[in-house]
Amino acid sequence: MRYSLMCKSFAGSEVLDYEKVPVNPENNQYTFSQYPCSASITTQLLPHGQRLDITLSFHEDTTYPMNFSFSMETEQWKKDNYVLMPGAVYNGNRFTSVPLQYPPYYQPAENCSYADAEVITSIPHLDFEKTQSQISLLSGDMASPLCGFYDFNGQSGSVLLGEHQCGSYYTGFTVDENQTDREAFFVLSAPGVREATQYFFGDQNDGQGFRPDNLAPSQDTGALFKQGQSLTLTVCVFQWQQISLQDFFKLVNGAKTTLENPNIFYNVPFYKAYTSIKEKYQQENFTKEGYYSVGTDWNIPQQCWQAGWIGGGINCYPFLLEDSSEARQRALSTLRFIFSRLQHPSGWVYGMYGDGKFYGDGGNSNPDTILLVRKNADLLYFVVKQLFWLSDNGHSTLELEQPVKAFCDAFVRLFRKYGQLGQFIDMAAEEMVIGNSAGACMAVGALALASEYFQCTEYRDVAVQLGEYYYINYVKKGMLNGCPGEICQAPDSEAAFAMLESYLQLFETTKESIWLAYAEETCEIAMTWVMSYDFVFPAHSTAARRSVHSSGTVFANAQNKHSAPGICTLSGNSLLKLYRFTGSVNYLHHLYAIAHSLPQYVSLAENPEFTLEKKYLPSGYMNERVQTSDWEGKETVGEFLYGSNWPEVSMLLTFVEVPGVYVDFTSHILQVFDHVECYVTAWNSDSVLLEMYNPTAYATTVTLLADERTNTMHVMRNYFEKMKTVPLSAGQRIQFELKK
């Protein structure tokens, strides 16, 4: 591995000139002949790497805007090396790229195999065939400010980590491969400049419509520096030997906070966020037809009913568990509506419905029987959880059991026919339309859970076979893809977290340790999508004025380049279960990051969220955008869009599935997830004395779960009723005893 320093001058985003200086380990002073600056380096050894603080000092004013870079350069480069830029690039995004209008839908030719190469839109990627290709991103385009690669042949990993800002400038990360010379360059720059072109999603100037475009003109440029000014670029280089790809993800997750750690903050308690959304749901999301919609503008079919995915049939589940009156009755009404009105004779459930009409998924011209399989996989999982709750609590399930069993049977038939579930099917013909995706992986957990409810070994067998299929074809290769219905087969976080949920359910069902091992591997991939630091938003932005903390938000996918509040559409309680099964507290810390971040994005009557449309979000609304990237234009960074989105469902799920305070008597662990402070004052054999303080401006009710993690039956399908509750006024401090 070689290292070098570089200065570049720019006219706009075009490079005018550059000067490159090799880094010599025995030298810490460097001068540039073409630029009025010099660099000094101080080095600190780290486990498996080193930290370099590189200070650039200017002895004259610069004539042209410029930037400064540190480059990690590797020889004997191979295209099959796995390139990672968290939340943005997985395996180099080295897939077939097709410039498609939004929403993209690319159906292969009839004679194509369902295992042909994945298709992505025009997003940043390294090329399949060209000898030279490049990916250039700003730090805000990624979940963590780093880039690196895993060498399969050498069983080694290398990572270049920086800070997301250097001084007042956002940093940039570039991966540049030159197959002719068998070289690759991993570069950290300040200010970040995407040279000539950048990724932009919107109305294109070429008349090709509203679409993603990796070749849009770059809006970046360098900076002018004054005599006497200095700039310090901090870099960490990590290198690991004799590791697997799965080890690589785990090591990356361990290293990514070396330079930037999230700040502790308190904002909106879980209960306040939950009740605000619940009230909004009762007022605006229950339709005259008797079901909870996924949006509030019922003139748009996509906001009426969409199965699973963004909330259809999931949004009723929290009310079933938490409420005892109207909201629960409406949840039951929603379940009845799904299986009396929305189920196709084949057993599948229509993907989209509104005002008496069914609509197909994918392309706007698709027939209404075209289904994104992921939608039904998500729906089945949550429907079976609700069947268990109904059965456990004395409610009749007779009218639901046969339709749900037919639903399960549809998945079994599809798998028996194709050996996979694909991405899109025609549910009337039960034919696969687009395959080659991990998008429907929640079906693994759904069928495993259904095998318990219906005592059906066939459902369990198919779940096991599917679980192995997804591991071999996706998890083991370090890339899960195609869960959202409008990204083609791009990598995404939703598939990773759905796969994690499924493997843990399969472990609960079978008690076979292989599924727990698979879950741990999947978790490391999933966590690379979670923002590991607090982005510094532009001072004038709404996010800055609201003191938003981006850590714990989750990048959606490699195409839609924004982070989001929560997991689409889960609570992340799989991480709690992963802690219970392994004893590793890191999983509790991961869950804290995701769950604790969520409530700050709920628009409240007392503190409404302002949007780019120049109006406030109503109370109980959440928007899916956490804009650290300028993928939709620089003016959108730190801003929010108007509209009701799926994070509302993630927040509802979080309240009923993630305890505000978790106490494990087995390991004497206390973990706070909610926006309160809580401390142990004494551990007893069957109780614990706690002191709790509410530092927020809102009265709340805190949920507490007293647990013994070795009791595997304590936290399974539905455990909300096992949580205890403690009311707490704003600013109140109390002491109390929590018993097992």
UniProtKB/TrEMBL annotation:
<protein>
    <submittedName>
        <fullName>Uncharacterized protein</fullName>
    </submittedName>
</protein>
<dbReference type="GO" id="GO:0005975">
    <property type="term" value="P:carbohydrate metabolic process"/>
</dbReference>
<dbReference type="InterPro" id="IPR008928">
    <property type="entry name" value="6-hairpin_glycosidase_sf"/>
</dbReference>
